[in-house]
Amino acid sequence: MDDYALVFNAGSSSLKFCVYQRSEAGEWHIESRGQIEGIGTAPRLSIKDGRGGILAYQTLDDRVCDVHAALDSLAAWLRSRYTDAHILGIGHRVVHGGARFTGPTVITPQVLDELRTLIPLAPLHQPYNLAAIEAVFEKLPGVPQVACFDTSFHRGQPAVADVIPLPRELCRSGIQRYGFHGLSYEYIASVLPQAAPEIVAGRVIVAHLGSGASLCALKNGKSMDSTLGFTALDGLCMGTRPGSVDPGVILYLFQSLGLSAKEVETILYKKSGLLGISGISNDMRDLLDSSEPSAQLALDYFVYRVAKEIGALSAVLHGLDGLVFTAGIGENSPEIRRRICEASAWLGIDVDSKANAGNGPRISGTKSRISAWVIPTNEELMIARHTGMSLGLIEARA
């Protein structure tokens, strides 16, 4: 009987998943990956094998209206393909772990209750992450589950990087900077010894640039600071989130414009960022293809904010040895990488046009004082590793 681990990343209208197989040496290898998207509207299932070959693409019944129904559809497909399989466990990406959950955690009903209290801090992600966990408890009660948090990698930062300067009595309720995208940053830190050994022990900024975007300052592979804070609204401009905003603007929305808390939440999480500036799209590809002035302004602002924060984090690190691009935009947009590197040229970054156009891995020139890299992230593999380790399985890094 073959041993497998499942990895789930549940969103508001999608359930992304990976199936990992454990080798005799304890290494995890991707066997298949896919998603059920359009949940509640036009649900469809798409699955590829570990090499990218199509295994399934089908329209699902309209009754697939929530993650419970989506899990039923996925389970049916898994049973048809993996007839002699043993599911060792299911690892979940959970965006917010708060102050208590500083590492991967085996999920119990009590843990689930505590994670529900963090929903207001990550309303775009946390409810759906937890809904998938609840569905597994109901459908597969005998399968152990592990929560892997996007905040955990940043625990252990210097206290000055965690503090929010509000009254102490308020901060005791858990108000502090947490940081996110930690699974991505942890993976990049784990592969630097092979991918870029010359900077692994140095001062590195990792740019996780996607629909959600942030930067993380690493020293010797450890998180020193990041641009995201108490919630996933801080820092860089993102697809639909604004990044750093003067708190007085939020007060103005309430006090002068009379908006409700729900209206302000919707603006901040779903209507701002690249979409808000451009009025066209939250997709970087659409904006790069557009000749509209508002699209160009959105691109300019995105690059401006990234370059500004690279400068700030370089100060935190007392210098910089390497810059790493990852995630959807970071891995796939030579144009955005070029603009960011040119805006950061004062630090000593000299981008190599040909290497950048080829997506690296090294995209800096031979004369560059600071090396620049493109390293694909793999949050799913990180979750599979954590799931195996948390459940006491023998596990080696792939």
Provide a descriptive summary of the structure in words.
With about 400 residues, the protein is of the alpha/beta class. It has two domains: about 170 residues, ATPase, nucleotide binding domain (Nucleotidyltransferase, domain 5, 2-Layer Sandwich); about 180 residues, Nucleotidyltransferase, domain 5, CATH 3.30.420.40. It is about 35% helix and about 20% strand. The chain contains 15 helices and 13 strands. The chain has an eight-stranded mixed sheet with strand order 5-4-3-2-1-6-8-7, sandwiched between helices. Strand 10 and strand 11 form a beta hairpin. Helix 1 packs across helix 3, helix 6 packs across helix 15 and helix 11 crosses helix 13. It is globular, with a radius of gyration of 21 Å.
Search tags:
398 residues, alpha/beta, Nucleotidyltransferase, domain 5, 2 domains, 8-stranded mixed β-sheet, 5-stranded mixed β-sheet, 15 helices, 37% helix, 21% strand, disordered C terminus
Query: Which CATH first-tier class of the largest domain would you pick?
Result: Alpha Beta
Helix content: 25-40%
CATH level 3 topology of the largest domain: Nucleotidyltransferase, domain 5
Specify the number of helices: 15
Q: Name the strands of the widest sheet in spatial order.
A: 5-4-3-2-1-6-8-7
Brief digest:
The chain has 398 residues and is of the alpha/beta class. It has helices spanning 67-81, 109-116, 126-139, 159-162, 168-171, 182-195, 247-255, 261-270, 273-278, 284-289, 293-316, 327-332, 334-343, 353-357, 379-390, and strands at 2-10, 14-22, 28-37, 44-49, 54-59, 85-94, 105-106, 145-149, 203-209, 213-219, 222-226, 322-326, 371-374.
